[in-house]
Amino acid sequence: MPKQGKKYRDAREKVPRGVKFQPREALELVKDISFARFDETVEAATRLSVDPRKADQIVRGTVVLPHGTGKTVRVLVVAEGEKAQEARDAGADYVGSEFVEQIQGGWLDFDVMVVTPDQMGKVGPLGRILGPRGLMPTPKAGTVTFDVGRAVADIKAGKIEFRVDKSGNVHAPIGRVSFDLEQLGENLAAFMDSIVRNRPAAAKGSFIQSVTVSSTMGPGVAVDPNLYRRRA
Fold first, then answer.
1. What is the pTM of this model?
2. Which of 27, 74, 77, 113 is the most exposed place for a label (fewest CB within 10 A)?
3. Buried b / exposed e across 147-165, counting CB within 10 Å, b at 16+?
4. Rounded to whole angstroms, how far apart are CA atoms 6 and 181?
5. How far apart are CA 148 and CA 137, in angstroms?
6. Domain 16-68+159-229 carries which CATH code?
7. Which residues contact 34 (CB under 8 A, 6 or more apart)?
8. What are the structural domain ranges in the chain?
């Protein structure tokens, strides 16, 4: 929760209460009321009609944002031989099984780890370190794979992973304030389409309860959830 200083309060006053905007209008307002001196991240958040305590109602998945997140993602690939070279050719920042030992020693200067299945025996014990930080590779996220070239390329292109939290909310970055409205709009559409596609069969009622967009320091702007309910 951002500190509610004067600039935040001024920005919040520019958001009409009770109004649910069309996506483009909401994103335009987010850009207009942003006030930080840095290029803020624009985030989307949606509340879902699921109970995350039940295994059959967990919502998680991945999506490649058409225009990326605006963040340079550091990719570590744990692989050997030809697969290691494939990872280097695809643009991985760090490649090699020796990084397993470095992580055990406290090194964590990466954002995503990709592992070939034959190396999971080495990486598995790192779960206690990587799990709490959301860095543990999983087949579901496409980060445990022999197709390391494609995995690295997708991540570099803007692939993000999302998962519902304990309160039934899903948050994801969809770009930067400096992005134009078309880029932010297409990224938001891709994210929400992926959420809808990952609807659990056990979800009841209106799956998409609410959708909000905001910048790092700014207040949330509500998006009309009916647009996405029709797709669910």
1. 0.83
2. 74
3. ebbebbbbbbebbbbbbbe
4. 27
5. 12
6. 3.30.190.20
7. 11, 40, 177, 215, 217, 218
8. 16-68+159-229, 75-156
